[in-house]
Amino acid sequence: MNNILGILNLESSSVHVEGIDNYRPVSAASFLGRYRVLDFMISNMTNSKINNIHLYIKNRPRSTVEHVTGTSYNINSKKGRIRILNGERNFSSDVYNTDVANFLANMQFVEEATEPYVVIAPSHFVFVQNFNDLVKYHADNGADITVMYQSINNAKESFIMCDTLELGEGKQVTGFEQNRGKFKNRDVSLECYCMSKALFMSLVEKASAISSLYWLSDIIADSVDDLKIIGYQHRGYAACINSLKAYYDANLELRDHNVLKNLISNEWPIYTKTNDTCPTLYKEGAAVSGSLVGNGCIIEGTVINSVIGRNVVIKKGAVVKDSVILPSSLINKDAVIENTVVDRYAIVTHIKEIKGTKDKPLYVKRRDRI
Fold first, then answer.
1. CA–CA distance, 230 with 119 (Å, rounded to integer)
2. pLDDT tens-digit profile of 104-113?
3. Hey, how many other C-beta atoms are within 10 angstroms of the C-beta on 279?
4. The dihedral of CA 33, 39, 41, 43: what is its sign?
5. Cα–Cα distance, 87 to 100 (Å, whole number)
């Protein structure tokens, strides 16, 4: 839709995917063996015919730039573009590197945008949503701000540290609080907001004047008594990738086709960078079950209930179970990997057994040799 400016926000300060985010933003991490996390939100925007997209990066931009630059996302390049933005300034402490600071540093691009509405979406969430439906709901209800939320019944284990909504009559938001795992049923914010461009600019300026540490979510929470903020319920699959366990859990639960079909379909394609790799080679003696396996792999060993990225080699006698193996890694002969996330280009060869637990998966560093 030509009346929406899409803003893909950087991950909040509560996001820490141990190990993974030492090398790239969480949004640029490999997901399901084929995609990057940010592919889902950018595809939501381009499938919604949003052609003007601002993509914010907090730090370590190389992986994001390389991936996005080589991906079309089916965007209309004559009428729009994906503009990659960051603060372009050094902060005395990373605590000052907020989304508000980055918005202010790039406000000229927001001012130049002709679209009257802004949809701010999170880069570290995975869900599918037609943003035209969100904007229509926002306009029909005469809201100042519309917040997308998901009603869940497993809040003691999932979406930890995410904001939750207190909803009153007509789904009006009366308050926000963090999910600390105390309650089972919660209405969890998906950190996706719709508002006018003018209000967005005003809130950014107001947040900056109140505190150098304020995020957009803080000023929205402060505004519940002054603005009409309503909730828009999202139905379907959603995941917040804000910890290593959340990353691990989301990858593994989407192995199930009945879950995956709620996220990926022919009607709502998820675009990603094209890789010209050959099909995976399953050699004699290979055994693979309950797993997602990317292209270009060579499988000689056993893979059970795992997600295997592109160009991974699993040698004879090796067993990979309940694990996530990122692209171009090598699991050598007779190694046993269980409940573990193995980062890109890692080689597991000398240590023959690496086992975490489902509650505390282990992490093998990028390019590590163990």
1. 14
2. 999 999 999 9
3. 9
4. negative
5. 10
